[in-house]
Amino acid sequence: MRRMDDTLATDAARTALPPAPGADQYRSLDFANTAATLPAGQSYDLLATPGSAMRWLAAHDLTTADVQLYEVCAQRMRTLRAHIRTLFAARVGSATPPEDSLRAVNDALTAVPTAPLLAWDAAQGLRRVQAHPIDRAVNHALATLAADAADLLTGPDADILAACGSAPCDRFLMRTHGRRHWCSTRCGDRVRAARAYARRSGTSD
Hints:
By secondary structure, the chain is mainly α. It contains seven helices and six strands. It has a single domain (1-161), classed as Jann2411-like fold.
């Protein structure tokens, strides 16, 4: 099973598009884009297996590489990703966000303590400790991603959040340049090629 998971993760990494504009500023944007639809019926999911999900978290400084994730953890990540994508799509489309997606992000935000807790043991007595045991690493990662998404959706950059304009790509980006409507050079090249073909054939795109 592990060998098959590793093969799936490697294939997804090879297929994956490069980070979209804004992903270096907002980890939640890169998180939302860990799954994407590609032309010719292709797609990828960088959170498809526990191993690939752990590597994504480690690469984004949200956990360490020695943390072992299980399928239930990877599924929680995929579920939160779906809700964040729904909220991004609602913001881009000026639609009312679904209550269940708002609740999912708020649940992630409040799942971990935000202040050091008061603890006691015989050796050190009373002390303040930051609750971050290994078995709660995913909770902390999801809380960080949820907070990042909330900051994006409520901050000034929300106005430049956009969906890729190169069908069938369904990734999001920050429109850092006014004329940019796609998430990667690959998607932009596809749009330009389609427009050139439409001009040559006398059809509209």
